[in-house]
Amino acid sequence: MAIHTRNSLLVALSLLLLITFSNLSEIYGAKLRPSECKPRCNYRCSATSHKKPCKFFCLKCCATCLCVPPGTYGNKGTCPCYNNWKTKEGRPKCP
Where is the signal peptide (predicted)? Predict the structure, then answer.
């Protein structure tokens, strides 16, 4: 019984570490592969009523920055390039 409990604890700890480290790439602004832009932008733009322009600009920003902030809104601090790209008027270019 002690071996089963120890193995269960080891599996649970391993899963916790895997989940923790799988999100570190987003937190530290790791570069995405270009093939990852479309699914990330689809999720990023899923909550807006202006999906077509959101996806257009998100894909454009992702192609340049190779980063899309997590979530459907905000969190731009995790992607400095995405966050700092502005229009001529000084407004954010990336959704």
Answer: 1-24
